[in-house]
Amino acid sequence: MRELADVLARYEAALAADDAAAARTLVEQLLADGMDPVTVLTDVVARTQRTVGTRWQRGEWSVAQEHAATAISVAATRAVSRHVRMTPPTRGPVLVACSEREWHALPAMIIDCALRANGWDSTLLGAATSPMRLNQHLQDLGPEAVAVSCSVLGALPTTRRFIEASTAAGVPIAVGGPAFGYDDVRARALGATAWAATAQGAVDVVAGLPAVVPPAPPLPAGPAGEQALLEVDHRRLVDAMRVRWSVSAAAGPVEDASPGDLADVAADVLHQVLHAVAAALLTGDSRTISETSWWIGDLMRTRGIDVATVYELGDVVTASLTEYPLARALVTRHFAAGIT
Ligand code: B12
């Protein structure tokens, strides 16, 4: 079997050259050589995708390059999926999905493959699945477990709706993905049955889930109520902050921007910062705010913009949240801490 460093270099070269056939052939060769499918997914495909994300974040790769690379990784993951589906399942049915507002489909595809490779009869519902569709599958399929992947903080509220739907039917639910951070704090706060950091972790926790679970307990009323109001007011708050923050104000209207332009990036920042506040209210984990201010700092610094604009953004957010005392206090306490 080839050394991993060599494999990674060849896979990255295929992505950089937009050569889907080379990436797929390499993955098929690794599987034919006997490499574990979960290792191919985590150590080659997922690992390279995160590098792609860092290049986009730092403005080194355009949005078009990122999209092309992702399309190749999706094709490579499909090749792994075809390979693992050649062996009949030996365990019960499971559902894998992303909740509404979550468009990062690839991590869920990877989890689906990893579970299928370990014998589960996995069904992938894909990105941005509505709770109604999940409910329908819960009833039609009677799964032993649900696995939900969540990459963006803005999809944590809809993931909570998945947790409510699944546990109301008695079905255990495992969650994971970057929006859950580095431990199980957010997962537990939202009422999930289990959390894991990796695809191999997903395989391990799904195997250990209880057969039946009670409905997830209600969330603390005060913060959850404020989060619900923030959601309704999201668009107005973003519009107000866009005028007040010097970076978005100078970048011009987002409607005229192309993907990756500063106006586009600044608009993303404003959405993400409010999502981070909403996620902190919902989960009680204020790290969502400091992690997001770190991310914004990196976006600004690598685009040559003074980091002082990130501190300024903290003030703009605080000033915009006058009607939201809990959210405002969280920003005052935790936003600046993430800026480096
Ligand atoms: C490709 C990509 C996209 C594509 C997705 C296409 C697709 N078909 O999937 C598109 C273009 C749609 C997209 C959109 C956006 N994206 Co994007 N995207 C990425 C990118 C580059 C790769 C994602 C990926 O495939 N990662 C590889 C996966 C496999 O790794 P992983 O997520 O860590 O998954 C592992 C574990 O977390 C775990 N796991 C995952 N799910 C589960 C589930 C369970 C149950 C368990 C147990 C474990 C588990 O196992 C996996 C394998 O080991 C990331 C960069 C990154 N760092 O990941 C950004 C990234 C996630 N995106 C980001 C952003 C900002 C966005 C947008 C807001 C930007 C925009 N305006 O377009 C939108 C938001 C869309 C939405 N609402 O969902 C940011 C998020 C930053 C933040 N602070 O939250 C990132 C981190 C990029 C960055 N560095 O800034 N994106």
Please describe the topology of this protein.
Blueprint: H1 4-16, H2 20-32, H3 37-57, H4 63-84, E1 93-99, H5 105-117, E2 121-129, H6 131-141, E3 145-149, H7 156-168, E4 173-176, H8 185-190, E5 194-195, H9 199-207, H10 221-244, H11 246-251, H12 262-283, H13 287-301, H14 308-320, H15 325-334
Parallel strand pairs: 1-2, 1-3, 3-4, 4-5
Helix pairs in contact: 1-2, 1-3, 2-4, 3-4, 3-5, 4-5, 5-9, 6-7, 10-12, 12-13, 12-15, 14-15
Bound molecules: cobalamin (B12).
Residues 42, 46, 49-50, 52-54, 56-57, 66-67, 70, 74, 101-107, 110-111, 147-149, 151-154, 174-178, 196, 198-199, 201-202, 268, 272, 292, 295 line the site of cobalamin (B12).
Summarize the structure.
The chain is α/β, with parallel strands linked by helices and about 350 residues long. It is built from 15 helices and five strands.
Description:
By secondary structure, this protein is an alpha/beta fold. It folds into 3 domains: 1-86, Methionine synthase domain (Methyltransferase, Methionine Synthase (B12-binding Domains), Chain A, domain 1, Orthogonal Bundle); 89-217, Rossmann fold (3-Layer(aba) Sandwich), CATH 3.40.50.280; 221-338, no CATH class. The chain is built from 15 helices and 5 strands. A 5-stranded parallel β-sheet has the order 2-1-3-4-5, sandwiched between helices. Strand 1, helix 5 and strand 2 (121-129) form a beta-alpha-beta unit. Helix 1 packs across helix 3 (37-57) and helix 10 runs antiparallel to helix 12. The chain starts with a helix and ends in a 6-residue tail after the last helix. Bound molecules: cobalamin. Cobalamin (B12) binds at residues 42, 46, 49-50, 52-54, 56-57, 66-67, 70, 74, 101-107, 110-111, 147-149, 151-154, 174-178, 196, 198-199, 201-202, 268, 272, 292, 295.
